[in-house]
Each structure stands twice: as structure tokens, then as C-alpha cells.
């Protein structure tokens, strides 16, 4: 029997050791934006029985600089078919005299919790 869960499998409940990816753009600041390509940590259990994810990285180099970020996601949001997403909302580091805002929803992962 195969106990592995793939990215296209629909699963009820919690799937351990999953992560999420996202592709987004920052807000405009200093007349430019940066692309933000991200992969989260595995799930971090929360006291309410749910989970969140940590992420850390750099936005793409643009306009002669980049920015660092560290953030936690919101709780899981079921999106149907045994999948869930997380909302994220954070600011980058201040570099070159400004910072950028990044917010959105990551790509779905298996599990409803």
C-alpha cells in the first residue's frame, strides 16, 4: 500500500510535512516592484489544532537591490476537494530607503486542516 500523498491528492484532515509555494509581486515602492517566489516551512502546529507555516527569503533582485522577509502565514483555509491554502500579509526589510508590502494566498496543498 502506498502511504505517500502527492500534490494532486485530495485528503480529508491534516497532512504532516506538507508545504506551500507562492508566486506574487510586492507593492510598488520607489517606482518599482519585486517578484516574490516562496516555499514555506513544514506545518507548525497551533493550540487550536490547526497549523501555520513560517517563511523566510529574499524577493527578486530589481532596481539595483533586493529585500529580505520573515513571516508566518495565517491558519489553514479549506478550498474544497480536500485541499487548503493560507493567507499571508507581511512587509519586507527596508533597503535602498524603502520597503514593500506582500500579501496574498499561497498555492493549495493536500488536507482540509
Polypeptide structure, described:
There is one protein chain. The protein is mostly beta strands and 113 residues long. It is 0% helix and 40% strand. β7 (76-80) and β8 (83-91) form a beta hairpin. The protein is built from no helices and ten strands. It is elongated. The chain has one domain (21-110). Strands 7, 8, 9 and 10 form a four-stranded antiparallel β-sheet that branches. Strands 1-2 form a two-stranded antiparallel ribbon. It comes from Fictibacillus marinisediminis. This is YmaF family protein. InterPro entries: YmaF.
What layout of secondary structure does this protein have?
Elements: E1 21-25, E2 35-39, E3 44-45, E4 51-52, E5 54-58, E6 68-72, E7 76-80, E8 83-91, E9 101-105, E10 109-110
Antiparallel strand pairs: 1-2, 3-4, 5-6, 7-8, 8-9, 8-10
Keywords:
113 residues, mainly beta, two-stranded antiparallel ribbon, 40% strand, elongated
Number of strand elements: 10
* Assembly state of the chains shown: single chain
Give the fraction of residues assigned to helices.
Answer: under 10%
Encode the helix/strand succession as letters: EEEEEEEEEE
| Number of H/I helices | 0
Name the structural class: mainly beta
Cα-based radius of gyration, to the nearest Å: 16 Å
> How many discrete structural domains?
1
Largest sheet: 4 strands, antiparallel
N- to C-terminal distance: 24 Å
Protein name: YmaF family protein
InterPro entries: YmaF
Amino acid at each position: 500500500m502506498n502511504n505517500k500523498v502527492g500534490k494532486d491528492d485530495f485528503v480529508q484532515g491534516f497532512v504532516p510535512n506538507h508545504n506551500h509555494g507562492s508566486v506574487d509581486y510586492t507593492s510598488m515602492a520607489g517606482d518599482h516592484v519585486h517578484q516574490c517566489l516562496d516555499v514555506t516551512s513544514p506545518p507548525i502546529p497551533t493550540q487550536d489544532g490547526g497549523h501555520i507555516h513560517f517563511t523566510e527569503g529574499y524577493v527578486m533582485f530589481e532596481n539595483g537591490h533586493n529585500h529580505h522577509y520573515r513571516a508566518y502565514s495565517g491558519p489553514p483555509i479549506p478550498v474544497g476537494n480536500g485541499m487548503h491554502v493560507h493567507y499571508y500579509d507581511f512587509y519586507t526589510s527596508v533597503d535602498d530607503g524603502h520597503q514593500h508590502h506582500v500579501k496574498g494566498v499561497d498555492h493549495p496543498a493536500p488536507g482540509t486542516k
